[in-house]
Amino acid sequence: MKTKSLSFSLIVTVILLGIGGWLVLFFHMTGTANHPAVLSGAMSPGAMANGTAGALANGAQPLEVAFNPPALEDAPAKNREAVLLGYKIMTETKKYAGEYVGNNLACTNCHFDGGRSKDTISLVGVASVYPHYRSRANFSTDLTLRTMDCFQRSMNSVAPPADSKIMQALTAYYQWISKGIPIYAEVPWIGLPKMPEDHKPDPAAGGTVYKDVCARCHGAEGQGTPIAPAVWGPGSYNDGAGMNRVTTFSAFAWRFMPKASPSLTKEQALDVAAFVHAKPRPHYAKPGAKPAGNTPAAPGAQAATQPAAAK
Ligand code: HEC
Ligand code: HEC
Predict the structure, then answer these.
(1) Which of 18, 164, 271, 283 has its CA 20 to 30 A from that of 87?
(2) d(Cα 277, Cα 207) in Å, to the nearest integer?
(3) Ligand 1 atom 28 nearest Cα
(4) How many of the other CB atoms lie within 10 Å of CB of 183?
(5) Is the full-model pTM beyond 0.90?
(6) Which ligand is nearest to the CA of 124?
């Protein structure tokens, strides 16, 4: 009896030890297996600083993506109205969001075909790379906040509220034209190219480039013509806009101007950017701050001169 119970408890001990060991091993293995999975989804600090989705950490290959924005009419029935409205806001901004336009521009003037083109500041895939870090905010920024920036600066106005139909239509639109592009993919056509830093932009040489190449479409006084929008003066973006940076303007002009047949060297693009940069344009009034009394306002730019709190 005694030996029997002794061997019984021995067997039980062995079984319990076996189960315990197996459990320890199991959690250890699944634990380590989880780490690479988490890491491969994380962006490297370099890619985040770049502001775009970039190389993946842990040596994983970046995801391959193809440029193939879906037709707007194919948007799911429940979202179609919002997606179509978003496109109209992009392309006919004054008509569909006139309250928030303080110059003579439309979004599509910089984001050609409402950002659906590859040869522009493309918005195809933006919904897959936002939210991301932006130095302007020194924090992560989503597409609503990013869009507000373009209203306040590029469109020289105040931004529609996040819960407005306008903002919700735009975000539905970005999401649809980003369809099929995985979150955190590297989207090569997003963002503007880097310009050389060893060329000192020469505004005088840029004046000649402007006269010879740009004036026929954008007007001798930068005021715009029926063919192309204003590049300076009251009808243009304000001095807080991304386009008001010589680096951004020159990258845009080098890559995309003249429209459909870009022809500048990088040096010419930097020169013409410096020339345009020196011209007058509306002043950026910080949202919520008292607007400057002498802000040169565009005709019909009532929104630009009102405090943001009024909206
Ligand atoms: C053949 C006519 C044409 C020429 C020449 C041309 N552009 Fe444009 N540009 C356009 C059009 C059209 C748009 C707006 C595109 C749209 O709405 O799809 C545009 C848009 C722009 C924009 C963004 C919108 C704005 O007005 O701020 C800038 C900046 C610009 N062009 C700069 C230049 C510069 C600099 C040159 C000369 C190197 C130049 N363009 C030459 C037709 C032209
Ligand atoms: C005068 C030119 C201009 C106009 C007009 C303009 N934008 Fe932009 N937009 C820019 C520039 C420049 C950037 C920054 C591109 C970059 O950093 O690579 C940008 C970036 C964006 C982005 C983020 C894209 C990215 O790659 O990070 C969104 C979204 C956007 N704009 C929406 C809009 C909307 C909506 C409108 C109209 C209400 C508009 N923009 C009007 C110049 C313009």
Answers:
(1) 283
(2) 11
(3) 231
(4) 12
(5) no
(6) 2
